[in-house]
Task: inverse folding
């Protein structure tokens, strides 16, 4: 028997007992039965009220809504449009039930958005040491029986078994607390009987605040065994802070692009896809870079080029860190200037770029024959924190004389529909004058050929003299005289 009908039954039973007690036993025993009946009636009423409040059920609400499994509205090409809530036309039915007890309201804002021009703004209070439980949580929810999903032609509830529900949320840094137990955020789904399913809790830290993050989970049967995904009638976002937390927060939380994965080929329109890319590109923070390059090198000389990225240090602070960690010597003639082992001046370049948690840096030579380049870091792709310094190092060897070019290219990672895309942030060119010393030039000669030429140049005159001397000797040899014949 349903809880609602059971409680009504108890209340009616209390009334019936009270009436019978007055008819059968109008005196002392009857009064006892009357009191018992009244207590049963009042208890049932209080219990019913508590159940209604706990389930957030308005009095005399509907107890059953037929399930409608419907097809999303398609474009002319047959591809389903976005299914969910983008808040471009207002709050689209989203609300909060806590406004009667504390500051809690929803509205739309154009100051910030994940896609499009608008987002849902949930303004609320969260106090870890609040006297009542309502101050330790807040949620924004939409009831689908009154607010059909955008893209569907009928109101809910919907059979969302196995479907992924996702929302993008923007959490201000003031929600972060420096303690072991942190405030956390979850997605929520409710069925027609107000049984709940929650997504995995995501703790709010400095790494996921002041930027858009995506929350998602698969709607299905989970720990709340009463939850029926075939009767999904409400979706929302909920924040909780533990009892005793030091959090004292009053302000906004932003929600945007809440969607339901309905079919494998579901996609956004072209304009929505482009807007999503633009939003991802804006979803970054400014950070400083510093790198060290030599102005000149000797042929076959080696040098370690070092690139640093930090989101919290200033340009001068990062340059100082780069100088100290490089281990380079300073010039005696010009104090403060860094020099290579061969005495050439080293320059430190600084700049500000847009950074994301994953960055990639590569070093290439404009002329592949000019330098040998070897990476000293494990991977070109590295994680960038909010306060720590991330380092790339390459060892280069000069192989070709003349002014040669090295290029540092920096990329940041953006994700579109779960796919990773590396977008070039900036590239920096460094001109390095590779010089050849007299000794190196002499050593670079091919002495085998030179020796052959010298020997040839010396040998030819010697051979010519030898041949000439032999000719002279031949001319100086007297001709033999023939003996005279005697006559008889």
Result:
């Amino acid at each position: 028997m349903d809880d609602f009908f059971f409680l009504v039954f108890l209340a009616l039973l209390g009334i019936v007992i009270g009436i019978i007690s007055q008819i059968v036993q109008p005196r002392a025993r009857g009064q006892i039965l009357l009191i018992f009946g009244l207590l049963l009636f009042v208890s049932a009423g209080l219990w019913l009220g508590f159940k209604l409040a706990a389930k957030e059920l308005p009095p005399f609400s509907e107890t059953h809504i037929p399930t409608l499994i419907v097809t999303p509205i398609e474009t002319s090409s047959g591809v389903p449009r976005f299914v969910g809530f983008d808040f471009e036309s207002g709050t689209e039915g989203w609300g909060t039930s806590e406004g009667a007890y504390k500051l809690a309201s929803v509205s739309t804002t154009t100051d910030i958005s994940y896609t499009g021009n608008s987002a849902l703004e949930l303004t609320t209070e969260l106090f870890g040491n609040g006297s009542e439980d309502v101050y330790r949580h807040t949620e924004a929810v939409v009831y689908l029986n009154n607010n059909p999903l955008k893209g569907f032609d009928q109101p809910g509830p919907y059979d969302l078994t196995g479907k992924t529900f996702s929302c993008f949320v923007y959490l201000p840094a003031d929600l972060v607390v420096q303690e072991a137990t942190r405030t956390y955020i979850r997605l929520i789904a409710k069925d027609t009987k107000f049984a709940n399913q929650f997504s995995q809790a995501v703790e709010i830290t400095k790494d996921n605040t002041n930027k858009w993050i995506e929350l998602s989970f698969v709607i299905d049967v989970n720990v709340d065994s009463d939850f029926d995904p075939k009767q999904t009638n409400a979706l929302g976002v909920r924040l909780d802070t533990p009892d005793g937390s030091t959090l004292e927060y009053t302000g906004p939380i932003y929600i945007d692009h809440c969607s339901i994965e309905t079919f494998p080929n579901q996609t956004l329109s072209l304009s929505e896809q482009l807007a999503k890319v633009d939003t991802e590109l804006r979803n970054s923070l400014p950070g400083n870079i510093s790198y060290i390059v030599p102005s000149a090198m000797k042929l076959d000389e080696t040098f370690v080029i070092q690139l640093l990225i930090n989101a919290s240090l200033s340009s001068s602070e990062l340059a100082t860190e780069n100088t100290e960690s490089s281990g380079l010597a300073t010039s005696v003639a010009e104090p403060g200037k860094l020099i290579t082992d061969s005495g050439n001046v080293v320059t430190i370049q600084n700049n500000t770029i847009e950074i994301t948690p994953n960055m990639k840096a590569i070093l290439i030579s404009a002329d592949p024959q000019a330098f040998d380049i070897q990476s000293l870091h494990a991977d070109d792709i590295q994680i960038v924190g909010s306060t720590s310094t991330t380092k790339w190092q390459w060892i280069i060897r000069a192989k070709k004389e003349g002014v040669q070019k090295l290029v540092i290219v920096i990329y940041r990672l953006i994700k579109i529909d779960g796919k990773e895309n590396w977008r070039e942030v900036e590239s920096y060119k460094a001109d390095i004058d590779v010089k050849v010393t007299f000794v190196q030039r002499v050593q670079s000669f091919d002495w085998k050929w030179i020796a052959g030429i010298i020997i040839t140049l010396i040998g030819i005159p010697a051979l010519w003299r030898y041949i000439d001397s032999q000719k002279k000797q031949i001319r100086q040899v007297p001709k033999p005289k023939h003996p005279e014949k005697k006559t008889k």
